[in-house]
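[job 4417] fold queue: 2 targets
>>> target A
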Amino acid sequence: MNKADHGVYAASITPIDASGQPDAQRLIAQCKWLMEQGLTGVAPLGTTGEGNSLPLSFRLSVPALFRDAGFAANKVIFGTGSCSVGDAIAATRAVTDAGYTNALVLPPFYYKNVSEDGVFNYFDQLIDGVGTDALRVYLYHFPQLSMTPFTVPLIQRLKAEFGPIIAGLKDSSGDFKGTLEFAAAADDFDVFPGSEAVLLEGLSKGCTGSISATSNASAALTAATYKANGTSEAAALQETLTAVRLEVAKFPLSAALKQIEAWRRGDDSWRAVLPPNTVLTETQQKQLRDSLQALEPQACVLGEQRAAS
C-alpha cells in the first residue's frame, strides 16, 4: 500500500535554531510527539512548515532523517512543491530515495494566469523525472497563495494520464463546496480538507480526513474527534475543535503555532520563523493566549508545560 493512510495529519511547523537555520532533529521530535497524541500522521515541509522559505539542501535531507527515525511510509506526506520543476523533482526524489512514496505538491506558483496545459506539463515532467510508479502525488490546492488553482477537469486529466500516481489533494482554499467537488472528481482520489473545522462533515461527504496547520496546537483533540466520528461525543468535540481553529486562524498561522509551542515548552526559541514571516507582537500574543485560555480545558491546547528538546 503506497498511499498515505486516511485520517488526520498535522502540517508540521519547522523549528529554527539560534543561527536562523532549520533544525531537523527538533522537527523529528516534534513530529513524533504529534503522532503520540493520536494523529494518523504528519505532513512536514508544507506551508505551515515554511517549506518554500527553507533551503533546498534542508528539504533534500529531511526524508532520510525521517526514515532513520523510524517513521512509517504510510504516515508521512512530504511537501515537495517548487516554482522550479527541477527542484520539485529533486525534492520528490529525496522522498522516494528514502523509501517514502507520498508527496504534497503545489502547482508552479510564480508565473500567474498560466494555462492548464502548463500545469499539466509541470506534473508530467515531475512524474517522469522522479521515475517510479511507486510515487503518490497529492495535489496542493491553495489558490490564495499559489494563485494557480487546480480544477476538476485538470484533476481528471491528470488522473486519466497517471492513474494511481495522482493519489489525492489537499484543499486549503476554504471553499468546502469546492472540496466536495474535488472529492467527487475521480475514483481512488483522496481529498483532505486543510481545516479540521470541517472534519466530521467532510468525512460524511466523501473526504478522507484532514491535513491541517492547527492540528499542531490541537493534536489530541483532532485525534479524539476523528476517533469519535459516528458517536454521541462527536458533535461536542467538533464544536471545540472548530473553535480552536477559528481562534488560531485569526493570526499568521506559522507564527501563532510556534508561539503556542513556545508556551507549551516554556522555551521562546520555538517562536522563531523564517523571513518573510515575523513573530507575533506582544498584543497578538495576549489576544491569542486569552482566546485559547477561554477554551480550556476542553481544547487541550495550552496543556501542561512540556520538557524542552
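>>> target B
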Amino acid sequence: MTDLLTQSEGLHCASLDRRNFLRTGLGGALFLGTVSLTAGLSGCATAPAGRLGAVESRMDARYRFQFLTTDDIELFEALLPAILGSALPEQASARRMAIASTVERIDAGIHKFGPANQKELRQLFDLLNFGLTRATIARVWPAWRNVTTEQADAFLQRWRTSRIGLLNNGYIALTKISNVAFYGHQENWQLSGYPGPPEWAVQALPQFRNI
C-alpha cells in the first residue's frame, strides 16, 4: 500500500519532467499564477497533507504526502474513478485501496518532478480546488468530495474537447499523471497488456524492481 513508484516509473516521470505539462504561454501562466495566489489568500490548503490516509477509512497512514494537499487528494479521489473506469476493482474496499495507493504514487511521482512542472501543477490544482474557478472554469459546482463519477467524467470530457488550450492541456496533465501512477505500478501492468520488463533487463537494471 505504501510502495512508491518503481524506479522505472521514476524514469518515466523524469522524461515527462523535461517538458512543461501545460504549455501555458505568458497569458496562461499569469492567469494560473493569479488564481493560485488568490486561492492561497482565501484559505485553501497549500501545505502538503503529510501523514494522512488518502482514504479516510484506511488504517495504514505510514505514507507521508510531500506535494499533494488535502484538497488535492479529494480532487484525485473524485477524478480517478472517471479516468480509470473499469480498471479499478469492483469490490468497495479493494476499490478504495486502489484509489488510495494511486493517489500516493501520484504524490511520489510529482515530488520527483523539477520545480517548473511542480509550480504548474500546483497552479492547476489550485484552479480546480478554489471554489470560484472550480465552478466558473471547470463548471463543477460541488466540492470534489461530493462529486459523482458522472460529474467528474463530464468535467474531463469538457476539458478534453475544449478549444481553450489551457483547459485541454490541463486535461492531458491530469490523465497522464493518473495513468502513469496506476498503470505504471507492477500490480497493474497486466491491465494495460504490458507483461513487464524482460528478465534480462530486470537483472541488468535493478531500477526496474520496486523500491
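[job 4417] complete. Note on B: The chain has one domain: 7-208.
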